[in-house]
Amino acid sequence: MFKIELKNNISQKGLSRLDPALFSFGEGLDEPDGILVRSASLHEMAFPPSLKAIARAGAGVNNIPVEECSKAGIVVFNTPGANANAVKELCIAALYLSSRDITGGIAWAKGLVDTAEATVEQQVEKGKSRFAGPEIAGKTLGVIGLGAIGVQVANAAVNLDMHVKGFDPYISVDAAWGLSRAVQRAASLQDIFATSDYITVHVPLTPETRGMINAETIAQMKDGVRILNFARGGLVKDEDMSQALASGKVACYITDFPNSKVLKMPRAVAIPHLGASTPESEENCAVMAAEEMANYLLNGNIRNSVNFPDVELPRIGGARLCVIHHNIPNILSKVSTALGEKDINIENMLNRSKGQYAYTLVDTDSVPPSVPPYLESIPGIVRVRLLT
């Protein structure tokens, strides 16, 4: 029986994917095998030796000490794509909000009252022109980042009669298959900046992407460009964006990540991080997180880990050894040699690496009574699990 600790309210639809004959779950469990979490911070948590995996029902893992988990051999999962449709829908709404001052018009209309000089209706007809803006049909949208969300936004914009350019030098095969053929491939970020009337950013926040929308890149853009940020707040340099909005270089900035600086910017629309706030998205994330957790604990398979490579191998009987180790030479030969010396035959083996760590699945024709200590003692081995 595996014990799964819940750090937030997790959708029952997701929890239903955990077989009650194999899993127990709840809050405050001692010696959990896994943790399911949404937004709760785990940075101050002391992880017990029993903990094997953490699954975050969402894409970002800023609330999880990933490097600490890697060192302890704890696999951290996220749920990329589970909230993609929810974020896409909000991005499409933001395209319209950025073009036509809908939010400003609504706020103005709410303050109108009948007066002796003019009724509300008369005031509306006289004042509505100040909130006018262009249609998005026929305009060019530049999509930076063609992951699960970026692809959906690009395809939806094509269907709204926009010209769409996409840039992602690391696009996956799955994403490429799902991308509309009408989306034009941009040769570079500079191509996106120079030709787009609207720009939407869908990349992770890394040291390389932090502040990628800044004074220098904004200067390369069209005058009056409209920029959407539904990825991470840190992708945009706030001071530079504020100056660009004040000068009119950027006509509108819409972000799902408000802060005190954004709230003071002229012509900025701050949405309170609603991208994934739909019941469907929460259910999808919970289902994916629970399935990732179950597949790893029961079968040793890894899919959608942020700190270890994807490794999936069908079970064929016998025993399975799940070996987390550093990505250094000769580890596999040492594992196979150690098993051979104990007359354990390897029936199947699969190895993948990700950065400084690697993961190996080994199926054998006999079942060791416990995790072999001669494997755990090999230099570079982080953790070994035995599945029977």
Task: Supply Rg.
Answer: 26 Å
Number of helices: 13
What is the CATH class of the largest domain?
Alpha Beta
Which structural class do you get from the secondary structure elements? alpha/beta
Question: What is the domain tally?
Answer: 3
- Major beta sheet, specifics? 7 strands, parallel
**Mean pLDDT across every amino acid position:** 95
Describe the structure.
It is built from 13 helices and 16 strands. It has 388 residues and is of the alpha/beta class. It has three domains: 1-80 and 278-307, Rossmann fold, CATH 3.40.50; 84-270, NAD(P)-binding Rossmann-like Domain (Rossmann fold), CATH 3.40.50; 308-388, 2-Layer Sandwich (Alpha-Beta Plaits). Strands 8-7-6-9-10-11-12 form a seven-stranded parallel beta sheet, sandwiched between helices. The chain has a five-stranded parallel beta sheet with strand order 2-1-3-4-5. Helix 3 crosses helix 6. The mean pLDDT is 95.
Nutshell version of this structure?
This protein has 388 residues and is an alpha/beta fold. Helix content is 31%, strand content 21%.
Characteristic terms for this protein:
Rossmann fold, Alpha-Beta Plaits, elongated, seven-stranded parallel β-sheet, alpha/beta, 388 residues
Furnish the topology, listing elements before pairings.
Elements: E1 2-6, H1 12-15, E2 23-26, E3 34-37, E4 53-56, H2 66-72, E5 75-77, H3 84-99, H4 102-110, H5 120-127, E6 140-144, H6 148-159, E7 163-167, H7 173-178, E8 184-185, H8 189-195, E9 198-201, H9 215-219, E10 225-229, H10 238-247, E11 250-255, E12 268-270, H11 279-299, E13 319-326, H12 331-341, E14 346-354, E15 357-364, H13 373-376, E16 381-387
Parallel strand pairs: 1-2, 1-3, 3-4, 4-5, 6-7, 6-9, 7-8, 9-10, 10-11, 11-12
Antiparallel strand pairs: 13-15, 13-16, 14-15
